[in-house]
What we know:
The protein is mainly alpha-helical. 74% of the residues lie in helices and 2% in strands. The protein is globular and about 50 Å long.
Amino acid sequence: MPAGAARIGPARIGPAALLILIVLVWAVSWPAIKVGVANVPPVWYGCLRYAVATICLFGYLIARRMPLFPPRSDWPLVAVSGVLQMAAYSALTGIALTILPPGRASVLAFSTPLWVVPLAAWRLHETVSRLALLGVAMGLLGVLTIASPSLHADGRGQVGAYCMLLGASAAWAVSLVFVRAHRMAASALALAPWQMLIAAMLLCAAAFAAEGPIPRINGISVASLLYVGPVATAFAYWAVVAVGQHFRARTVSMSLLATPCLGILVSAAVLGEVVDHTLVLGLILVATGIAVSAKSH
């Protein structure tokens, strides 16, 4: 692939444009998932999402004649990522979205970099600067600000949903720290369909146990899955890998902070989500905290 270009089918899109496209795709995905889990139980929705994405990515690898089976040394990474970054994250965010508006939920779900700092210090013995600790403190203050409406008498039912979102972002952070410590033999793109296959199988078992047989899926949910599965999951994962070949990880992570910002606007326009001062202030604090933490590395 030539430097400065990423191929999408027959067309070529510059890496900067592709990064912007990822932000747009993921911002729209939060309201789309919200609509989907309103008609399909959330764990079943996550299962179907990753099943569709698995088929898409295996098809891509076959079409590109890329190796299908990762080496044995990468299977621990495949398992950890499939369980935590995909299955746990999808199930927890899906359940939370049955209770919370998607814009507010997306901010907490994207707070993963805040948890990476203490986890990397503990597991990888990375040095944590005062600036990084300040960033984490600002981010946590933002999280509390966003969740503050749940402390009111009429919002106590939301506390569990906010805890699920924090658990989802923490699960992703654990996966990221594991990735840092692992030396990959295969490419991230080659491992992705296997990670998603593990996630789909785990979610399928959990859905049968917790939600019963798969329900009848209406047209709205089918449309949601056709966007979230192939576009917001399979394509977006490939796109992040492609963009990562051209930009530093810090640049990509900071750029992706635009996702919850745009997601809030999309949710407000499409679903009528209320954007109040706690959401705006919390978003600013979380984004600033992540930026400060990243700057310290």
